C-alpha cells in the first residue's frame, strides 16, 4: 500500500473515531445556546407515532416535511414560543397499503384536513435542558390543549451547511378519539405515543410568528 493511501485511510479512521463535537463544535449546555428566531429545518425534523395493534404489537409510522418557527430565549425559557405544522399526507409506514388507508377519510382525512399544527401557549422549565411546552394541537379539524415533554440535545454550527442549528427531542401522548379519529378503537389503541426530533436553524431576521390566540 502506498504512502498516499495509508495517509488517506489514517485520516478517514481518525474522522470516524473522533466525536462529532470536534467538527461541529456542538454545545450541550442550554445556557450557551444563541437566543433568537429559528425556523424548522425540515430534512432532519420528523414526527413518529406508535399505537398498540390488537394487543399484539406496537406499530410505528412517521410524518415529515414540517415547517414552523421558534423564538428561543435560553436565559428565560418561559419567554420562548413555538409554532410547527406538519403535512398530514406525509404519513409513512412500512406498508404502502396501510399508508394510503391512513390518509383516507376513515383515519387522518388528509384531503379534508391537510395539516396538523401545534402552537405553544406556555413554556415551563423542569430542569436544565428540559421543559414542558403546553399549547394547542389541531388535528383532523379539532383543536385541543396538549403538552410536549421537551429535551434539549445540542446546538452549534452545522458543519455541512454552516448554519447555526439547535436540536430537541420531544414526546407526548394523545388520544386520537378526542380528535375524531375513532376507527377500530379499542382494538387499535386510542392512545398514540408521539416522538419528535426537531432541528431549527437560526434566522438573521424575524420570521412571521402565529398568534396562539388566533
TrEMBL record:
UniProt signal peptide: 1-24
SUPFAM superfamilies assigned to the protein according to its UniProt record, in alphabetical order: YceI-like
InterPro entries: Lipid/polyisoprenoid-bd_YceI, TTHA0802/YceI-like_sf
Pfam families, sorted: YceI
Start and end residues of each Lipid/polyisoprenoid-binding YceI-like domain: 37-201
Record keywords, A-Z: Signal
UniProt protein name: YceI family protein
Organism, scientific name: Bombella saccharophila
Amino acid at each position: 500500500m502506498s504512502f498516499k493511501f495509508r495517509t488517506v485511510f489514517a485520516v478517514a479512521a481518525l474522522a470516524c473515531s473522533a466525536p462529532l463535537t470536534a467538527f461541529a463544535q456542538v454545545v450541550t449546555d442550554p445556557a450557551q445556546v444563541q437566543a433568537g428566531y429559528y425556523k424548522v429545518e425540515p430534512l432532519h425534523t420528523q414526527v413518529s407515532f406508535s399505537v398498540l395493534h390488537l394487543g399484539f404489537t406496537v406499530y410505528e409510522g412517521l410524518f415529515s416535511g414540517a415547517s414552523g418557527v421558534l423564538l428561543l430565549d435560553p436565559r428565560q425559557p418561559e419567554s420562548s414560543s413555538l409554532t410547527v405544522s406538519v403535512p398530514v399526507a406525509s404519513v409513512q409506514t412500512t406498508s404502502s397499503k396501510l399508508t394510503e388507508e391512513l390518509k383516507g377519510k376513515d383515519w387522518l382525512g388528509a384531503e379534508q384536513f391537510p395539516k396538523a399544527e401545534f402552537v405553544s401557549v406556555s413554556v415551563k422549565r423542569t430542569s436544565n435542558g428540559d421543559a414542558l411546552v403546553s399549547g394547542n394541537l389541531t388535528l383532523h379539524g379539532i383543536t385541543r390543549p396538549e403538552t410536549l415533554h421537551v429535551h434539549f440535545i445540542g446546538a452549534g454550527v452545522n458543519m455541512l451547511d454552516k448554519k447555526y442549528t439547535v436540536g430537541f427531542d420531544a414526546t407526548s401522548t394523545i388520544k386520537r378519539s378526542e380528535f375524531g379519529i375513532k376507527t377500530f378503537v379499542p382494538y387499535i389503541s386510542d392512545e398514540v405515543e408521539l416522538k419528535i426530533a426537531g432541528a431549527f436553524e437560526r434566522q438573521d431576521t424575524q420570521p412571521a410568528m402565529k398568534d396562539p390566540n388566533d
